[in-house]
């Protein structure tokens, strides 16, 4: 294989990954997207001079930039994110290649990619540079009838499916080049079965599944507030809340239990020790006095004083008087009695959080010009109660974390409300891709989802991941639906990301084995 051919194959892999991705892609392409890159790796493993790391970096850079270019609209940190994520992906692919060379340098060794890649996706759920947006299993959000079994496996099952098919197709091509007829027939049979059985089983499940639980009427507001020019301007504080209330009044009924508004819809700062003085609460309170059967779920920026002795806590911010305080991105549930709240746990890297090892940038996060510095988080998910309902309210970026969202359902949430502000990205694929995640969370947990975006796309989803209603971009709107409040727990809800856990332990074993064999090789050379 000539040098330029390896380069071309790497580019083709990157383009196929992008062409498969929601919302404008054709998801089926993901089943062949890895094949060109795997072919390059296979030639290198057989002795051809190929820069596996460099060529895989090119593949992943193309995929990252073409799929998430819209992040640039929100923050210049996008460039760093594309490079770093591509670098991390290339390191993982190179590690797979190196381990394969040491442990099992043949077609069967190609399957070592699976635990490595799945462990990498799992890592992206927890470390400082967390970025699960491109987890492979997300690609099927536009094909929900194919993946009803996500209620058992979560997104990790989709990643496993994709990698298995790609590896088998790559192995089939190798068998064809070597004219191994039995291997060809065996691979074709396995590939067809592996493609057909999950889809057919899913479609049967889709047809027979009916939403479970009691009917609950929910209103979703899309306030359509410009985050760049209007949202954090003090002169608009009251106006925005009054707009929310006016929209809710358009379709409120005696059966309405929840009114959902977006992340940061309350724009004035909320001190948790003095919430009675927040004007937005007074406006919403007047509305709820006439509708005591209803509560308001809404986002806002909250603050609280740092307890004594905690001044060195990384998110703590100093005041001019020497006191310290925390800032949170919070979801609030307001009724006629009280205001409950939870704080966002999964912060957007660089925008809402700076890693502690970059302490010199502590007060200079690349946020969209609002609250500088790292936000204080809740350590775990926390549901909020209204009447007989426990509701989970993932905030914005959190809806991309399947395992995290499942914690709300595991702790008893019978409905999921996603609140977000997608206006930072403009009219791009960004808000559309974000909308798609709610389909996956609905299927994984068999929970109906109500999604309120400041602007972008708001909507309702049933427990099969179908979109029941949705709004248009850059349009003030209010919609209403009756959702089933389900308390039953799926296998995935109960066990979370167990497939990722298995992959992580397998990767630990592979890394240890690779290290031992490498050291033994060096020892033998010295002798």
Commentary on this structure:
By secondary structure, the protein is an alpha/beta fold. It folds into 2 domains: 3-209 and 497-526; 214-298 and 334-343 and 379-488, Nitrilase/N-carbamoyl-D-aminoacid amidohydrolase. The chain is 43% helix and 16% strand. It has helices at residues 3-20, 30-33, 35-45, 52-68, 77-103, 113-123, 150-153, 155-177, 181-208, 237-249, 279-289, 402-410, 429-445, 491-495, 498-526; strands at residues 214-222, 256-260, 266-271, 295-305, 317-318, 324-334, 339-343, 384-386, 389-392, 415-420, 449-453, 459-461, 467-470, 477-485. The strands form 2 sheets. Strands 1, 2, 3, 4, 5, 6, 7 and 14 form an 8-stranded mixed sheet that branches. A hairpin with a 2-residue loop joins strand 8 (384-386) and strand 9 (389-392). Helix 5 crosses helix 15 (498-526), helix 6 packs across helix 15 (498-526) and helix 12 (402-410) packs across helix 13. It is globular, with a radius of gyration of 25 Å. The two termini are 36 Å apart.
Compute the gyration radius: what is it?
25 Å
Largest sheet: 8 strands, mixed
**Poorly predicted runs of 5 or more residues:** none
Instruction: Report strand %.
Output: 15-25%
Helix content: 40-55%
